[in-house]
Amino acid sequence: MSGWEPRQQYRDEDERPSGGRILQMIIGGVLIIVFISLMANSCSDKGSQWDSSAVSWSQSDVSSSQTASQPVASSSTVPWDYQIVEGTVGDLIGGDMTVLPGNELLPNDDNYATGDKIWTLQYMGAVMDAGADNKANITLTSWKPIKSYKSQDAAESDMAKLKLSLKADVDLVGVYKTSYEGQTRDFAVLTLPSGQQVKQPIDDARYDQLKSLKTVPVMLEEVHDYSNYDLAYAKFRGWAA
Predict the structure, then answer these.
(1) Contact, 233 vs 221, CB < 8 A?
(2) At CA 99, angle to CA 94 and CA 100, rounded to 5?
(3) Residue 186's CB: how many other CB atoms inside 10 A?
(4) Chain CA centroid to CA 62, Å
(5) Nearest residue to 148 (alpha-carbon basis) of 114, 117, 103, 124
(6) What is the SS3 assignment for 63?
(7) CA within 20 to 30 Å of 79's CA: 31, 161, 202, 225, which one?
(8) pLDDT tens figures, 156-190
């Protein structure tokens, strides 16, 4: 038995150092795995941030490109018409007055008294939503009194400066015929100075007259804005010849 004990002792002593080395290797391996995992996550986060940034810029560029290629509709308000309306001074409110029967409020610049007969110049605008096809959706505003007069002649004199009758040559897009249940209708399409295209019914004689033309003389009504005279809008008012 004594011969076996030293060997057993030696085996125990040999196994103890070997077990310690294995434990150290296991702990070291775990630490290496944890370190590698942390490094991988860090790299992944950075890569994700760069990828996200790149995608964001790419989407922005694509969005800008799409916006640039799409037609953009525009909206503007143009002067449409003027009229003269007879009225009576109503209530005096401070430096203003009401005009009957509509109770519109205007400055009492000419020191009118209640009951005085006056004439007012009234304005109507048009809100135009136009697309790239030169077609416009038109919404007319309500009448708005802008100035009062003691006489109708004075009012008409001012309105004549804001509404002008002109003769001009405009582009003729073309003429065409339509037929329905045995009836034929003729139309002409014109481009006005504003760029808007208008369609007008015509008879057979004018169809034959216009079909070979590129431009045609017409009568226009040029309406100027009362607060900005350079802003004007021309409307078709008939054929000049």
Answers:
(1) no
(2) 135
(3) 19
(4) 21
(5) 117
(6) helix
(7) 202
(8) 999 999 999 999 999 999 999 999 989 999 999 99
